[in-house]
Amino acid sequence: MAVTITADGRFDGPPVSAARAAMVLPPLNERVRMLVVSPHPDDESLAVGGLIQAVLDAGGTVDVLLLTDGDDNPWPQRFMERRIVIDAQGRTRWGTRRRGEVRAALARLGVEESSLHTLGWHDMDITGCLSRDAAAAVTTISAVITATAPTLMVLPALGDRHPDHGSAHVMARLAARAAAPDAHIVTYMIHGRMAAGTVAARLPLSTAIESGKRKAVLEYRTQLSLSGKRLLGMVQPEETFTLPSPPHTTLPWQPPVWVRPGLRLLVVSGQGSGSWLWRDAPLEKTRRGWILRDPRLERGGFVKLSLPLRSPWIFDHWGWAELAPPGAGSLA
Question: Any idea what the CATH number is for the domain that residue 34 is in?
């Protein structure tokens, strides 16, 4: 199956050239072994439902790694179950229901149930997995990567504002560094906008593939109950993918002085993880910006800036950034 890749102009900045865009997705043929990393049930269909079908139609293989069952999704659950209080048993029940939906959606896309790898982590706790025991989380994902031996990995974008998505990117990148160093990595964005200068490409979908993607999304009745228009609006005649952005040598943020006392930095790399309040972090102010002086970043890594206050707003304001040591390139 021939797939045409063209330059994408739907982000904050001028369109990239077709030549650069063509670097994003490799040729789709029978040699492609694709692993899709999905933080929640429905991410794989919304972002990659077309590409999944295109790879299978080309004779390749597809595996899906599902990190959570989407169990912390209270408003649709309250609406559909006609209840106010959602306890631990209720979250488990909802997660079981959503895992059934992902199986049905993947069947619509042509993915066998044996190709779905579920971890059962808690929704809204992927960052927690990193901060509590990054090595264990990365090892768990490395095992799936080793078993599936992907040539192509499709991850949530690091800049996606949903905390589970950005943290999933970090885990998968660190795992791939050891388990699949030669895999081609591309990302998808669901919550947020692509940064200026992002190397992006779009995959045109045939009428049949677009229809298959729509049928997969329609299997997510729990999510369509309150967000049907938004989710079905994401079924478009094309899908957009990007390369990971180059790493930073300084922190990309300049938080106001008045908010710094409450800010927390989380660093994660192949050498472990650590966190500090801004005032306690090993930061150095330079003319180029803030430099985080931590031995865990000797080979590069990732850092997250957050304001850990309880709020109904779940999305990140600053989020994650990749950091590289002076003179070093990206981790993957």
Answer: 3.40.50.10320
In terms of domains, do 16 and 106 share one?
A: yes
Please report, in tens digits, the pLDDT of each residue of the chain (332 residues total).
Answer: 334 333 333 333 445 555 666 679 999 999 999 999 999 999 999 999 999 999 999 999 999 999 999 999 999 999 999 999 999 999 999 999 999 999 999 999 999 999 999 999 999 999 999 999 999 999 999 999 999 999 999 999 999 999 999 999 999 999 999 999 999 999 999 999 888 778 888 999 999 999 999 999 999 999 999 999 999 999 999 999 999 999 999 999 999 999 999 999 999 999 999 999 999 999 999 999 999 999 999 999 999 999 988 778 899 999 999 998 855 544 54
Contact, 234 vs 213, CB < 8 A? no
Cα–Cα distance for residue pair 325/273, rounded to 1 Å: 16
Residue 1 falls inside a structural domain: no
Q: Return d(Cα 93, Cα 256) in angstroms, integer.
A: 43
Sign of CA dihedral 99, 103, 105, 111: positive
* CB proximity list for 234: less than 8 A, separation 6 or greater: 46, 190, 217
- Containing structural domain, residue 177: 6-242
* Structural domains of the chain, count: 2
> Is 299 in contact with 271 (CB distance < 8 Å)?
yes
Task: Give yes or no for a contact between 90 and 123, defined as CB atoms under 8 angstroms apart.
Answer: no
Q: Are residues 133 and 23 in the same domain?
A: yes
Can you state the angle between helices 74-81 and 221-233, rounded to 10 degrees?
120
Same domain, 54 and 102: yes
Alpha helices (runs of H) in the chain, residue ranges in sequence order: 18-21, 43-57, 74-81, 88-109, 126-148, 163-179, 207-218, 221-233
In a domain, 202, yes or no: yes
